[in-house]
Design a protein that fits this description.
Blueprint (H helix, E strand, L loop, with lengths): L23 H19 L1 H13 L6 E7 L5 H12 L3 E8 L2 H11 L5 E5 L11 E7 L7 H11 L3 E10 L3 H10 L8 H10 L4 H11 L4 E7 L3 E7 L4
Parallel strand pairs: 1-2, 1-4, 2-3, 4-5
Antiparallel strand pairs: 5-7, 6-7
């Protein structure tokens, strides 16, 4: 990794935790550390409150289904289920991840949480078999190549009844160097190396807009800059 990153183009390097032969202890330590990192910088509470829970309030009697893409340790899903219950809303979440070790770890920690199904799957190879209300991904899209992002959106959008929401990383110096300092507090894991690489694999706003338009030229999509170095892609799919 270069000491002075080039932020003009997306990196195509593979993250250490995406290697099937990576150290499983470091992998699961990284997943556990991401719980704290998510609370500090991902703004998932604000994002899910505004783009999912507020939308559910339009028909609070309806039972809704959300698919979380790249759910990891499922800490965000557990928070969302509790927040929905607090507001009297009915929500079921299917938390999806490709990595068998991560899925097994999440099931051990959260496998008995009501309303949460934790599933190992390749979302690109297993398109939805039934309609879902929401699709959510936190730091998921940057793991994919451009053509994979386009294919994912094409495959899933027709099955979504309400909204697709993706929160990902803005590829820029400020979030990179800010995370370089924060990651010093997360040792003996992949959190530092992979986190910095993830930012280099992140997006500029116009890049994410172009990919969305290529996949779904007729869809109503919005991209927002959020503080702490992230981009929020919201795609309106409201059918009922």
């Amino acid at each position: 990794m270069s000491l002075i990153p080039d932020f003009s183009i997306r990196s195509s390097e593979h993250e250490l935790m995406d290697d099937p032969d990576c150290d499983p202890r470091k992998l699961l330590r990284t997943v556990d550390q991401f719980k704290s990192i998510n609370r500090l910088v991902s703004r998932y509470k604000f994002i899910l409150s505004k783009w999912v829970l507020d939308d559910m309030q339009e028909r609070p009697q309806e039972s809704r289904h959300l698919v979380d893409m790249g759910a990891g340790g499922c800490d965000i899903d557990v928070w969302l289920l509790k927040a929905a219950e607090k507001h009297g809303l009915k929500l079921h979440i299917t938390a999806c991840d490709y990595d068998a070790n991560i899925v097994a770890h999440a099931r051990e920690v959260y496998g008995k949480v009501p309303g949460l199904e934790i599933k190992q799957t390749d979302l690109l190879k297993e398109p939805p078999k039934a309609p879902v209300d929401y699709v959510f991904g936190n730091h998921f899209l940057h793991h994919l190549a451009e053509e994979q992002i386009i294919e994912l959106l094409k495959q899933w959008f027709p099955a979504v009844r309400r909204r697709m929401v993706f929160s990902d990383l803005h590829r820029a110096p400020a979030p990179y160097w800010g995370y370089a300092l924060l990651s010093l507090f997360y040792p003996r894991s992949f959190a530092r190396y992979d986190g910095l690489l993830s930012i280099r694999k992140g997006f500029k706003k116009d890049e994410l807009s172009l990919l969305t338009n290529q996949a779904l030229p007729q869809a109503k999509a919005e991209i927002h800059h959020l503080s702490l170095g992230r981009l929020l892609l919201s795609i309106d799919a409201k059918k009922q």
